[in-house]
Each structure stands twice: as C-alpha cells, then as structure tokens.
Amino acid sequence: MPGENLTRDEARERAALLSVDGYDVSLDVRSALGEASGDGPRTFRSVTTIRFRCAEPGAASFADLIAPHVTAVSLNGRDLDPSEVFDGSRIQLEDLAADNELIVDALCAYSRTGEGLHRFVDPEDGEVYLYTQYEPADARRVFAGFEQPDLKAPFRFEVRAPEGWTVWSNGAGQLADGVWRFAETKPIATYITCITAGPYHYVTDSYTREFEDGTALEIPLGALCRKGLAPYFDTDEIFRITKQGLDFFHDHFDYPYPFGKYDQAFVPEYNLGGMENPGLVTFQEEYLFRGKVTQTSYEHRATVILHEMAHMWFGDLVTMEWWDDLWLKESFADFMGSFSLVRATRFTDGWIAFANRRKSWAYRADQLPSTHPVTADIRDLQDAKLNFDGITYAKGASVLKQLMAYVGEEAFLEGARRYFKRHAYGNTRLGDLLSILEETSGRDMAAWSRAWLQTAGVNSLTPQVLLDAQGRVAELAVVQEAPESHPQLRPHRVRIGLYRRTAGGRLERYAGHEVDVDGPRTVVPGPVGAEAPELVLVNDDDLTYCKIRFDETSLATLQEALGELTDPLARALCWSALWNMTRDALLPTRDFADLVLRFAGRESDIGVLQMLHAWAESALIHYAAPKWRATGEELLAQGALRELRAAAPGSEQQLAWARFYASVASGGEHLGLLQGLLDGTELIDGLVVDQELRWAFLEPLAAHGAADEEALAAELARDDTASGRRRQVRCLAARPSAAVKAQAWAQVVESDALSNALVEATIAGFAQPSRRDLLEPYADKYFAVIERVWQERSIQIAMHVVRGMFPGLRASEETLAAADAWLAAHEDAAPALRRLVLEARDDLARALRAQACDTAAGG
C-alpha cells in the first residue's frame, strides 16, 4: 500500500501543472465469465486516452494506475517502455508538451475487496455481477488517470461485455455492434465515475419538473438489483422517496439536477451505505429487505437515498479541492439527508434518529485520540480513507444544524444557492463557502468557523439550578466544560427545557428558554421565580452539538420517571445523555441496564428502542464489571423475554425485542426457547420466524455450542443465497472451539482468498464475547502481524483486520500495555495504521474505566 499513496503536496504540485480536457475509457469485461487463466488475478482490458494541458512545457509529472500489467503507453505519439515508466501504481511522464495525449493499454484486476471493479458470483444461479467503487482513489484500479478531486474532466466510456448483459455508467448508454457507448459526462472527478454490468434486474420510471420560467426538466429514473433479489425490490417506495427528494432539492437549491438520468443500483458485497456517482448512485443491497424489518430500516434507507442525492450538488457539481475539505460534501449531505427527510417524506420524526443514532457516532469519534476538526489535516490518501468517520459525517451535520439555527434557514439556503451557481463544476475550499454565508447572513463566519470547524472535541453542558427560600428558581445557569486535550469552549444556541410531573404522573415541559451559551458559565435570564423544575434538559430540541449532563435532581427524576417523559425527542436526548454517561464511567453499567429494563418497553419510537438494545448489549459486553456480567446477561434476557411476550402480536416492537432477546440469550432455558422457535415446537403469538430471524436465532445457538456444523449446513440448504452464505460463515466462526478460532484467524489474517463480505462475516463470528478464553492466544499474535497485514493487503481489508481482530474482549491492563508497547515500538509505522491501533486502545481504556465504575457500584 505505501507505494499506492498520494500526498497532498504531490496533488497540489500536479494540479498547478496540469489541467485535463477529457478522458476516453474503453473497458473489455468479457473475461468476467468463464474460468480465469493462469495463476495471477483475473483481469480485464482497459484502454485510456487522456487529453490534458501542461502549464510548463518540458516539465515532468505522472498518471495513476494500479494494474498487474501494462501492455503499452503512448505519450504524444511516442511509444514508452512500460517496464521503464510504470512502477505498479504510477506512470512517469517526462518532457510534457503544452497539449498532450496519453494512451495507456493495461490489464487491470477484478476486485474481491469492493475496491475498483468488484466481481461477484451469485451462489443462487452462478450469474456474475460487476460494479465499481472508487472513493477516495480506486478509479486507478480500472483506468489510468489523474486521481485527485481537483483535476475534473468530462468522461466518455465504452464497454464490451458478455452477450445478454446490460451495462450502466454515469451517462445514458446504447448498445451497438457489441459495444456499450455512453454519453459524455459533465466535468467530474475520477472518484465518482462508475460502471455497473451484468444480468441485473432493472426497473424504470421518470421524474418531471416544471419551473417558474416555463422550462421543464425530465429525468429518466432507474433502479437495479441482482435477479435473486427482484422479489424483494420495492421500487415503488424507492422511486417515491427519489421523486420527493428531487422536488425538495429543486425547491430549495434553485439549480436543476445537472447530470441527465438518475439510476440507483443496489449491489452485492458493498463496503459503504451508498456512493454518489452522478447518474448512477450505488447502494449496498442490504437495503432490500428479505424479511420483516421495522420502519427504522425504511427510514434509514430513505435517509441514505436523500444523502446521496444531496451529493449531486454538494460534492458532484461543486467538489472539494482536496480531502481536507471532505466535510464540504459529506457533512452537508448528512445534514441535508435528514433535513429533506423530515420536510419531504413521511418520516417526519427523522430528527429523533439523527439525535439518537447519528450523533452517538459523532460523540464517540470526537472523544477518540484520533479526533480532528471537521476541516481536517489530510496529508495523504490513507488519511483520507480513515476520515470517512463520525466527525466528517455526523458531527459536521450537527454543526450545520447549529449553523442553520445561528444564521437562519433562509440565509443558510440562499448561501447554498449562490455557492452552486458561483462554483458549478469547479472545486472549493472552506473559505469559499464561508464568504458566501457571510454575504447572506451578515454574520462573522470566521469566528464561527474557528470555534466549530477548525477545533476538535465535544463540550459538555450541565444545568445549575439555585432555588430561593420558597423553592422557586432563583437562578438557572449552564456550565460549559471541555476536555483538557481540546479545551475549546464554543458558542451554543440552545433551548433549555424545564419539566415537571403532572397530576397524572406524566413528565412534561412547562417552560422553555432559548439562549446563547458562551464561555464557562451562562446565566439563563428567563426562569427566575418559576416553579422548581424536576428535570432540566439543556439541549431541548437538539439545536447544538454537545454532551448533555444533568444536575442531581434531574438525574434522580429520570431514574424514577424516564418512561413518563412524553416528548419523544426529549426522551431520545435523555437516553443519549445517559448512554454517554455510561461510556464516560459516570453512570454504572448496571444502572443503565436497569433503566433499559424498566423503561425501554414503554418507548414509542422504534428507532430509539432498537438503539437502546444495541447500547445495552454493548454495555454488557464492554462496560459491565466482569463478575456481574453473567447476572446482567440473565437480567437482560429475562427482561427481553418479558417484553417480547407482552408486545402486540406482529408489531415492530415484538420483532425488535425478539432480535434483542437472541443477542443476549445464553442460558439453557433461553437457548432452548430459541431452538424451539426455530423448529416450530415453541410459538409466540404473532412472531413470524422468517429466514432473517432464523439466522438471528442460530448465531447465539452456534456461539454457545448448541448448533453444530451440520445444523448450519442444513440452514444454508434452506437459504443458499449470498446473504445466507454470509450468515452461515459468521455462525461457523462463532462456534466455541479452539480449532474453529484457529481456522477463522488463518482465513482472515494469513490468506486473501475471502471476499470483503466474507472477511467481515468471519471477523464478526470470531470475536464472540461468549467465550473470551478462546481468544486469549490471539492477543500477542495480533500485534505481531498487523504491520505485515497493512503492507500486504488492500487498505479496505487491512482496516477490517486491524479494527476487527484487535483483542478488545481481552479487557485487561495487560492488553492495554501490549497496545502501548506496540505503539512505542512502531512510531514509524503508517500513520493510518497507528491511528486504528490508537482508537482501539482508547476503546479498551474506556471499557476498563467503565468496568471499574460498575465494580464500585456493586459494593
């Protein structure tokens, strides 16, 4: 991997020297079928013609290409010797002219890792499917180019594919004389070009829009998936969300969708949720639901569809100059995904999921040693790969939500409109957007940017309530704190909610005060003389990005009456705050589990309920005192079973509790019930045990030795699909056997035979908490191999291994010391690798602190 890296300095030098007029890319993927020849990787032919200019004739530069073999290179009619100019990742270009034409004929490799041109064989019918994924820099695995976001150009693609296949790309395509030829694109970056090819199932629709000036826009719509998933392809719902999104963005952006057609491909073994390729957006096919799911899954899919659509403007039309300003597309798309979801679709409570789920991701990332400002310092491509994180997405989106409250909605959206018109098909930096927002809002954006975009860390806001002799509010203040490592105190526009219990016992807001919190202590002017609150919620309505803390009275109220809090967003914010307190070792794990057991069953928002289940399971695995863990597991299992039986038959709550029950089941009674539900000897009224639920029940059975290889093979025979094989692989690796763990380790660490999806499944099965003793031998092995893994494997697979195989379940001071020793001995290791180890080490240290807190609470 180091030879494939590209630094920011190199990219800037090349951008100052070169400008690109256009690409012609010809691919021949007929080799995707049949047997591979030779011992090397299966390859396809790629011929690229690049027309570009050089500002300093006679200068030298390079093009990017990662390929097993280059057949020919021609520069301005001169044939160059590939063995002399190609080093495996770069093609050296000497003595450039003012106007240049580079032609590269290469054999590129199909991918099994989701990077470049991924090849998937469907186990159901043997059909082969291809798709590309490039961000941040994997287009060079498919064609030669200048792989950086500020060297945009028009692209023309042509593809030769097996007979009977359909091929899609960014532009509209036609098949003639056995070749698929596609319309030239607008100027776009290399990382958002794309190809999808195979016998995909394809459904079409169209979108029309009339504008006030009398013009009209028609956008052909398409949606595609593997043939085996066609029965589950709910295209009516997908097109409905798509059209609602296009309406919303046309209403608010005042810039018509600029890329012609709008296809959406749901593809197998995808590493991301989605990717914003203009004209051909790609998504993970897990968004097509084979079994019953809750509305949370549909809401999340809609958010991702809208997120990728927002990128057509934020990212595709206007693109960041370098990955430092990745937030200029991802933060905006994340925010706009939720903003449009709430305003344009049936998911009008979408801000609850944003507050509860997305911001939880951001809070975790912002407390790691690798935290960074929203505008990050991205030195090279490896840095860029790791910066697709909770800060760039969810914190950035949270900050934009605060910005909209700060400047006003209309000023914010007018800034976006001017931004698109001023920088269409160009590249921007932070200052380009801020200057426009200053125009539209009249606000000092430089100071706001310094506080929110250019510093790292999350602030904590805690209420202070002083009462007078009559028990009324004498003073209400908000105390702002920051960690020592990132001491920045920020301006926060917040709404302070004051709550009391009514005569009927409900916990309701009786007053609210909007205030600008700034500095270490801010007095709230409004509530003096009011009734004493039982709960003060310092970020009511979730306007800002902060960790909410509680005063003693508020915490006691929540511990008594959280289930009586009537407002669903306020309730979600309180749950999130309590989870953060658990992670910060301020609330014992057993207390958090008790709150879940007492109040989660009354949670009306299904997304919050499912998040509570995930948090409770994580708390039990990582934060519970080891001696209490078995007790906690049984308490959660009994509570989950109680709620499962009490839930309305066939309801979303019933399904959610069934999945949670399976995740915490361990004792003989619970495993027996799961087995009975599988074989039909046990029934719970209304619970349909479909294929997806069957796998969810089988995993704990396998992990506890109650389902053997024969049982898992029988289940695969019922579900011999791509999803079924992933689930079976995960269950096989979960079995409590030293031989099984050794085999899983070898398959993931010592071999590259598995695809990306099966690597993930094997790691998930290997790292089961039920038998931590079986993982003991791999702690030392991990630190001995990770540098080799980083050097030899693709960055995507290396990230899976380094993150997933870290010995975090061996939660001890010895493991912490081993991580510190590796870091001390490998100061010169790749910065991205060190970052992953630092993050895992920090998670472990946090777990040990939380376990100590829980141990102390147990007496």
Secondary structure elements and pairings:
Blueprint: H1 8-17, E1 18-28, E2 43-54, E3 61-64, E4 69-75, E5 78-80, H2 82-85, E6 90-93, E7 99-109, E8 116-121, E9 128-133, E10 155-160, E11 166-169, E12 173-176, E13 179-182, E14 195-198, E15 201-210, E16 216-225, H3 235-253, E17 262-267, E18 274-275, E19 280-284, H4 295-310, E20 319-320, H5 327-344, H6 350-365, H7 381-386, H8 391-407, H9 409-423, E21 427-428, H10 430-441, H11 445-452, E22 460-467, E23 473-481, E24 492-501, E25 507-517, E26 521-524, E27 535-540, E28 547-548, H12 552-561, H13 568-583, H14 589-599, H15 606-623, H16 629-646, H17 652-664, H18 668-679, H19 691-703, H20 709-718, H21 722-734, H22 738-750, H23 756-766, H24 778-792, H25 795-804, H26 813-825, H27 831-857
Parallel strand pairs: 1-10, 16-17, 17-19, 20-21, 22-28
Antiparallel strand pairs: 1-2, 2-7, 3-6, 4-5, 4-7, 8-9, 9-14, 10-13, 11-14, 12-13, 15-16, 18-19, 22-23, 23-26, 24-25, 24-27
